[in-house]
Structure formats: structure tokens, C-alpha cells
Amino acid sequence: MAKDEAGARMKRKTYEKELEKLQVQLCHLQEWVKEKKLRVVVFFEGRDAAGKGGTIKAITEKVSPRVFRVVALPAPSDREKSQLFIQRYMQHFPAAGEVVIFDRSWYNRAGVEYVMGFCSAQDHDRFLSLCPQMERHLVESGIILIKIWLEVGMEEQERRFRARIDDPLRQWKLSPMDTESYGRWYDYSKARDLMFKATSSRHAPWTIVRSDDKRRARLNCIAHLLDSIPYKRIRKEKVKLPPRSDKGRYNDQISLRGMKFVEERY
Q1: What would you report as the CA-atom Rg of the chain, rounded to the nearest whole angstrom?
Q2: Are the C-beta atoms of 38 and 96 separated by less than 8 Å?
């Protein structure tokens, strides 16, 4: 892969060229997942403004949403709070031939819920204790589980937060919870390290991606994803379009006369 100068942010032209190559491989992976009826789960975690949404978009924008499904759950309802903690996540797990990408996962319990006091210390300890066992069961059942942590630096996070404040197209990304978490940087660092120590196992390890440069992070994430699921390109016959029928020579434009069309402003 072509590289820019050391320490420099990747140029857009370089990024787009490399991204297209990787997205072609994602399409090949998609066909392999369907053919082999694989079940893949990808967890994306990281601090606020680490780049999870943009990375997931780069992964999914050229593949089928029927194969690559994205799950971004809101805060739990009162009913969901009364269920098993993992229950609302498990219902979104893949069937054969699917890749499910979680934009935040049950590791909320090890992060925001723990830091912000939404769960008890006992709940937090129990989660960290049981999580490796639960994930072992998932892996042994045939699920491919990939856990990715996007690591953004303190200064870069602040820059992104300030950019959101000033940009009306991105202000929706900045919630009161985000601003509250901004002031708890070191609490989140401690929670992150506790989580890694307890839940990065041989069968379900964490992989960290530095994300101060969003473009490099996206490419590195996709490359890691492709490496994590051994696949081969499935050769298919080239599609040939059949001739259109001219039976009756139906004029499908005349039939639209009198219908309401959107105003052509552009």
C-alpha cells in the first residue's frame, strides 16, 4: 500500500484508492460468507468521537445490507432493563450467511454504564467475570467473533468535539452524555484497561486500532477484518442481460401523463 510521509495524515486521493481495493475484497468476502453460511459478529468499541460510525460506513457502503447488518441499539427500555443483560444484543445475532456489526455492544457495561454509575460495582464485576465464558460458548458454537477498539487520543478527541459544536451537520452527534464523558477521560481509561485485562482472551481477543487519522484507521480496520475471516474468491459466470420483450409495444411513458412529478429544481 502506498504511504504518505511519516506522521502525516493520509491524503484523500490515496485513501480513496486504497479503500476501493479493500471494498472489492469485502464484496468477495460477502460471497464467501453467503456460500459457506458463516456467522460473523463484529464489535466496535471506543471512546466517543473515536470514529466508529465512519469506519462502519466504510465497511458497509458497497456491500449488501442483507448480508452486512449494522446494529446500534438505543438506551434500554424499562422492559429490557428487566431482562438478562445480554438478551437485547443476542436477538440481533446472525443467521447463516450474515455479518452483524455492533456499533457499541454489551461492552457498554464495562464502559459507559460503569463509569457513569448506571450499573452497580457488583454488576460490573459479574459482567467482566462471565464475559469470557459467554464468548467462549459463542465461538465454540461456530460464530466468528471479532472485537475492535478504536483508540483516539485526548487532543484529537477534543478537536473532533469542537468541530461538532461548530458544524450544524454534525451537532446531532454530540449528546449530553458525550459532553459528560468528555470530562471523565481518565475514568474511561481505567475502565478500558480493566475491560481489556478481563475480557481479551485467546478465543476472543481485543484488537486496538489507533484512530487519530480516521482514514488510516478505516483502512486498517477493513484490512484486519479481511484477515480475520479466511476467504476465497468465488468465481461466478458473468451476468448477461436478456433481450427486452417488445410484446404489445406498450408505451410506458404515455401512461405517466397526468401524474404528479417532483419539481425539477436541479
Answers
A1: 22
A2: yes
Per-residue pLDDT tens for 162-202? 999 888 888 888 888 888 888 999 999 999 999 999 999 99
Contact 38, 144 (CB under 8 A): yes
Contact between 100 and 94 (Cβ < 8 Å): yes
Distance between CA 131 and CA 115 in Å, rounded? 18
Given a cut of 70, is residue 146 above it in pLDDT?
A: yes
Quickly tell me which residue has 478505516 as its cell: 218
Rounded Cα distance, 209 and 47, in Å: 12
- Mind listing the pLDDT tens digit for each residue in 200-242? 999 999 999 999 999 999 999 999 999 999 999 999 889 999 9
Domains of the chain: 33-230 (3.40.50.300)
Higher per-residue confidence, 151 vs 7: 151
Q: If you search the block for the grid coordinates 476501493, which residue do you land on?
A: 20
Whether the Cβ atoms of residue 148 and residue 130 lie closer than 8 Å to each other = no
CA 2 to chain centre: 25
Contact yes or no for 197/125 (Cβ under 8 A): no
DSSP state of 203: S
**φ, ψ dihedrals at 50, nearest 5°:** -75, -15
Helix (H, G, I), strand (E, B) or coil at 149: strand
Q: Is the pTM of this model over 0.85?
A: yes
Residue 43, SS3 per DSSP: strand
What's phi and psi for 239, nearest 5 deg?
-70, 135
Torsion on CA atoms 175, 176, 177, 179, rounded to nearest 10: 90
